[in-house]
Amino acid sequence: MQMYQSQTTNPQTNYFIVDSSSSPNHNDVDFKYYSYQNQTNKQLHPGDLIIYRRSGSSSEWGNEFYLYGTAQLGDVVQVDPTTGNSLLEVKNPYLFSHRLMKQNLRTFDWKFRKFKGKWSNFFNMNGITQITKEDFLGLLDRQNNLSPEFDDLSNAEESLAVKCYQAQRHELYTIEDTAKGVPTRKAADKYFSDQVKFNYHYKSALTGTADEDELVATRIIPWEENKTTRLDYRNGICLTKILKKAFTQGYFTFSDQGHIILSDLSSDDPKLNKTLNKYKNRKIHMNREYSPNKNYLQYHREHIFKR
Predict the structure, then answer these.
(1) Angle made by CA atoms 261, 193, 4, in degrees to the nearest 5
(2) Which residues contact 141 (CB under 8 A, 6 or more apart)?
(3) Which of 110, 125, 129 has the alpha carbon at shortest distance from 43?
(4) How far is the C-alpha of 122 from the C-alpha of 119, rounded, in Å?
(5) 292, HSE (Cβ side, Cα atoms, 13 Å)
(6) How far apart are CA 216 and CA 194, in angstroms?
(7) Angle formed at CA 49 by CA 43 and CA 54, multiple of 5 degrees
(8) pLDDT confidence of residue 84
(9) What is the C-alpha separation between 199 and 287, in angstroms, rounded?
C-alpha cells in the first residue's frame, strides 16, 4: 500500500494487532488516539504500524472479534502517572473496506504464530499482539480483495472515509458533495457499504444469501435527495443486486414493521418480477439498534414507491 510504503520498507518498523474499545467514552479514539499500559508494555514505538481489532467482549456482532483498520503510531501526547497509561497520537489512518471477521480469516496463512483452528488465546490477552510484516500486508490484501470496488481511492478520499466512520460514531450523518475540494461520494460509500453489510451480518435482509458478490448496501433515501441522512446506517438495507434495483426504482417498499409491500405496477424485467413475487410475504429482521429508521421508510413509501 502506497500509504505505508516508507514504513514497510523500514527494517525498524514493528507490526501489531491492538485491541480498541467500542465505547466512545474510552480513552481510545479509533484512528485518532490509542492508550496502553506503558509500565508493562514496552513493545510499542512511534512509527510502528497497527491493525485495529475489536475483541469479542467489545464487539457489536454477537461476541465475535473483527479487524477493521490500520494506522501508524505517533508520539505520546499524554501520560497518566497514577495508572501508568500512555496516550499515543495515531497517524495515517486507514479504514478497512471490509471488516475481517472469523469467517474471512479461516484460511489466512499467519506467519507470527501457527493457527491451530481455535481463536482462544491466539491473540495476546493484554490486547497487543506483535505480528510480522507478511501478516500485516496479507491482511491488508485480504480486506481489499473482499471489496475491490474501493481500491482506487486517493489518500484524501481514504482520510475522508475515516472521518465518515468517526462522524457516525457521534451520530453526525450530514456530509456535503465535496469536502475541501475532495468529492465525498466514494469515501462515504466505503464507510457506509461495509457498515450496513456488517449490521446485517453480511447477508441479504430479504433473501438471507451470504454471497457477498451479490450484496449491496442500499440507501432508503437516495444520496442526492438528503444530505443529512447520507452517513446514517439506519438509512441502509443490505439487499441483493436485483432487489436493490427494484427497491430504488420503487417496485417494492417496506412497512414500519419491516413487511415487504409490492407495487401494483410491474417492471419491464420479467426476472425482477419473478423475484419480487417469490419474496412477497417476507419480512426483514428489525433489529432495534440497526433496523431502518421509520421516517426513512415513510419517505420511501411516499416519494419512491410506485402506486
Answers:
(1) 175
(2) none
(3) 129
(4) 5
(5) 28
(6) 9
(7) 85
(8) 74
(9) 9
The answer to whether 185 and 177 have CB atoms below 8 angstroms apart is yes
Are 205 and 238 in contact by the 8 Å Cβ rule? The answer is yes
| Spatial separation of the C-alpha atoms in residues 52 and 68, rounded to whole Å | 6
In tens digits, the chain (307 residues) has pLDDT values of 678 999 999 999 999 999 987 555 557 889 999 988 776 777 899 999 999 999 988 888 878 999 999 999 999 888 888 777 888 999 999 999 999 999 999 999 999 999 999 999 999 988 999 999 999 999 999 999 999 999 999 999 999 999 999 999 999 999 999 999 999 999 999 999 999 999 999 999 999 999 999 999 999 999 999 999 999 999 999 999 999 999 999 999 999 999 999 999 999 999 999 999 999 889 987 777 889 999 999 999 999 999 8
Phi, psi of 134 (to 5 degrees): -65, -40
196 CB contacts (<8 Å, ≥6 apart)? Answer: 217, 218, 233, 236, 237, 238
Looking at the whole model, is its pTM more than 0.90? yes
Q: How far apart are CA 18 and CA 123, in angstroms?
A: 9
Residue corresponding to grid cell 443529512: 228
173: which residues sit within 8 A by CB, 6+ positions away?
A: 167, 228, 229, 230, 231, 232, 235
- What pLDDT, on a 0 to 100 scale, did the predictor assign at position 286? 74
Ordered alpha helix ranges (H), the chain: 5-8, 102-105, 133-146, 155-169, 185-199, 241-248, 270-278, 294-303
For residues 265 and 251, the answer to whether their CB atoms sit within 8 Å is yes
CB 85 within 8 A of CB 37: yes
Q: In what order do the strands lie in the sheet with 85-100?
A: 33-37, 85-100, 66-80, 49-54, 15-19, 128-131
Any bridge partners for residue 29, and if so which? 33
